């Protein structure tokens, strides 16, 4: 099959193949066709010189809110992905079983960017989240809808990758951890992983972790006090280490209130890296402090993570969390998505959710994306 597109001469960093080399990447039929030096262009092949750029598998943002127009916190996926280098946006619970059909028809299906979703166990998902109204959907147990959630998840397996629930003082109030138990029933019924949000106690970080199964995701994993994974002495809590040992995954989910430099420094100093780096982008944090996926990745780069590890946490690791191995890789035969980035040097001001600033010396910048084997440039 003739190549549709060749990215020529970039530095290809693909952690799924332990690849870091200057080489070409070719796409055909919507998939990665070949990786190697001097790939031959056919008549009609688009060739792009990317010799000054880094080519990675298409970035996956494991925690976004992109039900634009259907929820008050949703942002436009295509505009966000264009500027953030994301080719797969994973919406985490914006929609529940009561409104997922609208999310699918009006947002996901028309989108040029791939959107996958964790389905909320609450009937209408995250419905009361704005500058003026802030209602935790898990506060009201009458909104928990496990029967319909299982049905909708089963009928939409092409798009739904797991079950979402939010617990904590702000999300579940006096309902505490009960919504998590209900969501786990649904996840067990449909054989899908679960993503759990955690905010202020109750419940405690330890209580939430104790219930999570191998392959489940704890998001907001590097959140500030209270409910931080680090001790006051700067060590990692025993429950956190035990959970990772049994296969629980730790996701950043930066957002408006869920990432602190203090926590991240402690965790990284102990060699506890996040499994996945995600932005938790929504209307209340897109103008700061999260901004986008590449900014969130940049913060970890500036705190000492290797570039290859930062990329892994936004590509192959996220694909494994989604159980979609065809994503997050430039292996021939995988989905033909790629992200082009540069790493600029200078002085860059980064802020966490508690107002601490970090002056970093590097910044990851999105320079373009390939989606489905084609150079993507939305209007």
From TrEMBL:
Keywords: Hydrolase, Metal-binding, Zinc. Zn(2+) 2 binds at residues 164, 197, 220. Signal peptide: none annotated. The modification N6-carboxylysine is found at residue 164. Zn(2+) 1 binds at residues 63, 65, 164, 280. The record marks 166 as: Transition state stabilizer. Transmembrane segments: none annotated. It comes from the Bacteria. GO terms for molecular function: deacetylase activity; hydrolase activity, acting on carbon-nitrogen (but not peptide) bonds; metal ion binding. Pfam families: Amidohydro_1. Residues 54-210, 264-343 form the Amidohydrolase-related domain. PANTHER family: DIHYDROOROTASE-RELATED, IMIDAZOLONEPROPIONASE AND RELATED AMIDOHYDROLASES. NCBIfam families: PRK09237.1. This is Amidohydrolase/deacetylase family metallohydrolase.
